[in-house]
Amino acid sequence: MMITAETTNYSRDAYSMLTSIGRGFRRSCPHCGKGQVFEGYLKLFDCCSNCAAPTGEIRSDDLPPYLTIFLVGHIVVPLLLLVEAYYHPAIWIQMAIWPTVTLGLTLLFLPFIKGAALGLMWYLKIRGDEQH
Length: 132
Ligand SMILES: [Zn+2]
Prior knowledge:
Elements: H1 5-8, H2 17-25, H3 63-87, H4 91-123
Helix pairs in contact: 2-4, 3-4
The structure holds zinc ion.
């Protein structure tokens, strides 16, 4: 079942998709932009603390990890190749630096990208459990 304006009485007419994504990226409610929707690092409250939008029903599943891996890969791989090309560090140094950088950037970006995915899904009125 899709979240619709009829069933939730939350119209998206007052803001754009980018606004909704941006609000989510800031980890605030994609509908009002003021309320808290994250209970923890990635866990969602059932609804917004300000406008009660049922954002907790949205299951973004693999989208945030997929986008995070895509982004981090496009940052880490060019850096790794540049460092190798210009500085030729020992392999043990490479093996110490790049997995740590990859893990750090992934953990840094994931909650914000999850918020952005939440904002996108909220705007598109999809919950992530649709059967097609
Ligand atoms: Zn709200």
